[in-house]
Design a protein that fits this description.
This protein is of the alpha+beta class. The chain is built from 6 helices and 6 strands; from the N terminus they run E-H-E-E-E-E-E-H-H-H-H-H. InterPro entries: AmpC-like, Beta-lactam-related, Beta-lactam/transpept-like.
Length: about 220
């Protein structure tokens, strides 16, 4: 199978007040105070915050949080809160596509139209184009006005409707342009090819086998 280079990036992370399994932390080493100072100096207590973990081998040297999980609700950030993954999700999406390709459920050369027959230009956009951000599909987060609805809870089909009728930015395969939309389409392809919803597929095929109990 050909090698595909997958590009991912981090979107801003939002903490959710969900408790995750807490790793064992060593007794405080001499450097703990400096770790704490670095974190609190970078993230003020009344501003959006961060969680930090410093480990040496299997031993956790420092684990702490500074700042707010929710400015709106006034919730301070805690080390055991779970973060939304943002675009880190893309690596799981790409892995799932390659798993399905290996199993013969799809090919990287398959046109998008095989899975979404009514999608505009679906005959010229391939799975590989979507994986490598070379499809020309407009990035929906760049569509004017989209950010105003960014916190709305909508399904995959509704999200696809946000950008499906936008003209291609360039011919598929012509060049690279980062596109969140491409990975939304890949999520839809995973559901079509596997017969399972995206969350269930990722849970059963990736998280559970790897013991990722808090993902």
């Amino acid at each position: 199978m050909r090698k595909i280079l997958i590009f991912t990036s981090l979107l801003p992370l939002l903490a959710a007040p969900t408790v995750a399994q807490e790793p064992a932390v060593s007794t405080a080493p001499a450097s703990t105070v400096s770790y704490e100072e670095v974190l609190t100096n970078a993230y003020a207590a009344d501003e959006p915050g961060a969680v930090a973990l410093v480990a040496r081998g299997e031993e956790v040297q420092y684990r702490g949080a500074s700042g707010m999980a929710s400015l709106e609700l006034g919730v301070p950030l805690q080390p055991d809160m779970v973060f939304e993954l943002g675009s880190i999700t893309k690596q799981f999406t790409a892995a799932a596509i390659l798993m399905l390709a290996k199993e013969g459920e799809l090919s990287l050369d398959d046109p998008l139209a095989r899975f979404l027959p009514d999608y505009p230009n679906g005959d010229s956009i391939t799975v590989e184009h979507l994986l490598t951000h070379t499809s020309g599909v407009v990035n929906y987060t760049d569509i004017p006005g989209y950010i105003d609805e960014a916190r709305s809870d909508i399904g995959v089909e509704e999200l696809i409707d946000v950008f499906r009728d936008q003209p291609l930015e360039f011919e598929p395969g012509e060049r690279f342009a980062y596109s969140n939309s491409g990975y939304v389409l890949l999520g839809a392809i995973i559901e079509k090819a596997s017969g399972k919803d995206y969350a269930r597929f990722i849970e059963e095929r990736i998280f559970q086998p790897l013991g990722m109990e808090n993902s």
